[in-house]
Specification:
Helix content is 67%, strand content 0%. The chain is mainly alpha-helical.
Length: 186
């Protein structure tokens, strides 16, 4: 695959993550109002389908647009101010989560696509993401880490749904257009 096609796929997944921001966010009245959004589904899909580097680059491209002021986050948020909000840890964690998700998917290349994409999305898209998001939340809200961690568990059921959706979407892509799954290519 040419580097031009890789650039197109990176831009496409950045746009997909932005488009998932149009799905109405569920506002959480505590924890600084960090919303439950569909955008982490896009982060998981970017890693699982594009691989670690291209997946992370897609997320970084989206975050670059956000930093420039484009309203690409759920609720039409954008600008440098979002990097000073309670969501900052999650935003910093997005490219790392996409990278780890893609890396796990590549390492599990011999496993069933559904199983490997669910494992990769759960580890990268939840565990790794929360490793950045929860401390960022605790710092911004000036709350103890343990209390913030317990409060953040409200997000896990929605994230588990996104993990399953990632698996099902990836399996469907692998069946219909296997060469699109770049994590399974050498």
């Amino acid at each position: 695959m040419t580097s031009d096609r890789h650039l197109v796929l990176i831009a496409l997944f950045a746009a997909l993550i932005a488009a998932l921001g149009l799905v109405p966010a569920f506002q959480v009245p505590f924890l600084g109002g960090v919303p439950i959004t569909a955008q982490t589904l896009g982060v998981m899909l970017a890693g699982v389908i594009l691989g670690p580097v291209r997946g992370a680059l897609a997320v970084l491209l989206l975050l670059f647009g956000v930093a420039l002021g484009l309203p690409l986050l759920a609720g039409g948020r954008g600008g440098l101010g979002v990097f000073q909000s309670p969501s900052v840890g999650f935003l910093i964690g997005w490219p790392i989560a996409a990278f780890v998700t893609g890396l796990i998917m590549q390492k599990m290349a011999d496993a069933n696509v559904l199983v490997s994409s669910i494992v990769a999305a759960a580890f990268g898209g939840i565990i790794v993401l929360y490793a950045f998001g929860v401390p960022g939340l605790a710092i911004m809200l000036k709350t103890p880490l343990w209390e913030t961690f317990i409060g953040a568990m409200i997000y896990v059921p929605g994230d588990m749904i996104k993990v399953v959706l990632t698996g099902l979407i990836t399996q469907t892509i692998a069946r219909g257009y296997p060469s699109a799954l770049l994590t399974r290519r050498s």
